[in-house]
Task: structure prediction
Amino acid sequence: MSMAEAIESFLPDGSTVALGVALEPLIPFAAGHEIIRQRRDDLNLVGPISDSLFDQLIGAGCVRRVTAAWVGNVSEGLGHCYRRACEQAIPRTLEVRDHSNFSISLALWAAAWSVPYLPTRTLLGSDILRTNPDLSVVGELAHVDAVRPDAAIVHVQRADEQGRAHAWGPLGITEEAGLAADRVIVSCEELVDAEVTLSDPNRILFPETKVVAVVHEPGGAHPSPVQGYFKRDHAFYRDYAEHSRSREGFEAWLHEWVLDVPDRATYLQRIDVESLRVKEHRASAPADFGFE
Amino acid sequence: MSMAEAIESFLPDGSTVALGVALEPLIPFAAGHEIIRQRRDDLNLVGPISDSLFDQLIGAGCVRRVTAAWVGNVSEGLGHCYRRACEQAIPRTLEVRDHSNFSISLALWAAAWSVPYLPTRTLLGSDILRTNPDLSVVGELAHVDAVRPDAAIVHVQRADEQGRAHAWGPLGITEEAGLAADRVIVSCEELVDAEVTLSDPNRILFPETKVVAVVHEPGGAHPSPVQGYFKRDHAFYRDYAEHSRSREGFEAWLHEWVLDVPDRATYLQRIDVESLRVKEHRASAPADFGFE
Amino acid sequence: MSEPAARYTAQELMVAVASREIRDGDLVFVGMRLPVLAYAVARNSHAPNARGLFEVGLMRDRPASAFLGTMGDPPNVTGALWATRMSNAMALMAQGNVDLGFIGGAEVDRFGNLNTSYVGDPSRPNVKLPGSGGGADIAILSRRWVTLMGHERRRLVDRVSFITSPGYGDGSPGWRKRSGLLGGGPVAIITTLGVLRFPEGGGEAILESVHPGHDLREVLDNTGWDLGVSASVKETPAPTDPELEAIRRFDPEGFWTRS
Amino acid sequence: MSEPAARYTAQELMVAVASREIRDGDLVFVGMRLPVLAYAVARNSHAPNARGLFEVGLMRDRPASAFLGTMGDPPNVTGALWATRMSNAMALMAQGNVDLGFIGGAEVDRFGNLNTSYVGDPSRPNVKLPGSGGGADIAILSRRWVTLMGHERRRLVDRVSFITSPGYGDGSPGWRKRSGLLGGGPVAIITTLGVLRFPEGGGEAILESVHPGHDLREVLDNTGWDLGVSASVKETPAPTDPELEAIRRFDPEGFWTRS
Result:
């Protein structure tokens, strides 16, 4: 399935969607850019830190609410579109539901386990408790209300057609996001045979019953890193930060890199992919799944 | 470190100890038998289903309390020592804190996250809520109080001297048991170099900061299965079930297989290990942890 | 036992009957023993798209390729679609993703409540049973569930003294909803003598069919309450040859079905 | 900037000073940017047994072997002791296993409260800052923590208008305990001009040292409250050659320390 078909079919306007759930690596930028090209509206973005993908979706006007711990550009600092939306309602008003990294994870575990909330010892003493209606203090504990995404979108190293996804490296809140979501859209560097994914069922991220689309999208996480495949493109983040300082600069950047680009393959032709590609391979020791 | 040293050093009388946390596979029988040989007393056993290891520890008089979802012999049925302890206080009185499989997992997650309880929608309508003081109903939810083991003991396929353990196959409640416990004792089929475990940090079960002992104990899970290494010894479970029907039969079994056996190596000499060994190997597809 | 026993055992019939409860496309929470075989039979006949979820932390879309003494045996892991933590399998069930669950029972009552914990006073029981395992979780969270047990007067009782895994509680309309239970409750009790089924929306089990070689009187005499009988009570269809063939392929030595 | 700047930058000094807060054997919750370098410096000098825990879901016992733009960059994963979920890293901190945490701040006040959320009315802020990230978690759950920031009057304020990551709240004795916070709170504020330290048991930060090339007046003029000065206020020890060498090895292009 193409990314365009996946977003068209499984991410309607108004969706609550979890993105960037592995934090800095494996951010599904290709999916995010397709969301922008299809001019999705009224989205509720859910995630821990997002590293500029949220900023782009907000600047493009796709977002009604952000439910996150941090929105900006990790190596560069502030998210300029996020600031303009919160401070000046440009391009539209934005509702913010602040979380901490721990609490957004708990909000997703609550949804995964079908409970209305989970209690925690974090957030106590923080004013986040005052501004986010999904958080409260009961006795000596904070209660974090469940956040159930309609969809979670993840980029992984490899997956098969049936939706069995293998990802490695730090996983952030990937697992709880996928379990909490009604449906999962997977984009992958490599589309592999089931014999590859099933050779290591412990590395399969989600039950296939959650996965509604698998998109073969090499380079779909650029400029974020993909262990074993791509390094992080620090300069690209810096370039985005500079262009997005002004609304006009952002609009120009958005046209150049998203709106006037038909698909990810074309996007990659404009990047020095080879300089980013991981070339020294380090294979993990195999696990023996023999049984007889 | 030897199993005898590990139990001597890290499992004092009165400990709350999690065992058999992967359910039917990877049960640390060698550790359990050493606990019996060292005549540990007043233990509080924590686990999901235990598959006859708990029955043996109870029959040997090591146990004051059981905090578990199920105690018996999975392929054979009832746990006869467990019955004698609960019904006739033989060899001593036993306190039982009944859980379901889901609730014992939540009790450990509560401890891992340092909260006094976790809410759940399971257990509602079950009389388990009436008999276990660690469970309660608040509004429309059941509250499962935290259970924090002093120690968790796990058997894994491989580990290094520094405590980085690799296990695969279904993990049951292994991860939350290790995170909730103050300390973890690991026994392993293979003691490997750190380059093997660190080649796949996603497969490392626990932070090494939790692990206090690594025991190289091949066959340490017999008669339970070890993916890639040993099949389950069904006949051994049946033999145990038959002998343990009577207290005398159990005592005889305990002498033959535990008390009169100095260590696991000697125990294995009495078993047809080759007939149980997995001989057809199935290596998992490697993950590429390259970065440059 | 009478004539049909020559062709199949009581356990084989129970497995065949249980397999017919599985619908194509179901996600089945597979309990130990006979249900493992029931999933295998269904998957190889009328439910090719049924998946199995195992509380140990596994999902499969086909039976294991060798005999299983427990759901955690190595053959059940090789080729699994997911090897994970128990709490993740439970999460799917809590979300209503599990269509059918199987629970083994020691005692069941007219309202489908199961006791696998205590016979007599829990503080000093006459019999201490193994406990819930995942039973209570399945009974509370799965969309529908079935239990299998030997048909004896001491097992099929008017009211269980201890509810480990709740069915329809006191049998009053809406008991599960009032008690906050998410799942739908039991749909059938499959015994060594017949099949008891619960009405839509729950309540009290009534006799739906009597197994070949047994009669209504035998069923009623061995049931601990005044069992209602369906107006259309019939004989339980015997296992077909393909069903028996599948059962014997997955339990070649009769570990579960000929002991 | 004055003479010492020739040998090192203000950021390099801050990293060196931050590294000295790490004790051998500490489990350090490493935040982004300068703290990543501070861990690398400490690990290569006085704290060979210090481990780093990263909220993305990593534990390490040595610095990455290549430059890191973020804690999730591939060099930080290769050779990691544990690659896991964020909630597992947070579990260790909630259990009191994290000895020291680093938090970046936009605004800090005399009681060590950090604001990284809103300047002005949260419903229509003058400035929307990125938010907590893991900051609030570290501030509440780690045994002790340190923050680093540029020393400006608008950043070091009397009281922050919004507490994202709590220090000692209103500064009253026992505020953290009364509020249910598990961790110990902030121990130091490391700025571009000096080091402010909190007394044992918390309270109000006082000036402990002034960085080489700067003077007391400059520090006081750039602090938004009447900053207390330690009777033993001294000059911050300059970075040693080994410290600078380590910093430049892990930030070869000065991405963090020469911009």
In short: The CA atoms of residues 120 and 142 of chain B lie 5 Å apart. The first strand of chain B starts at residue 16 and ends at 18.
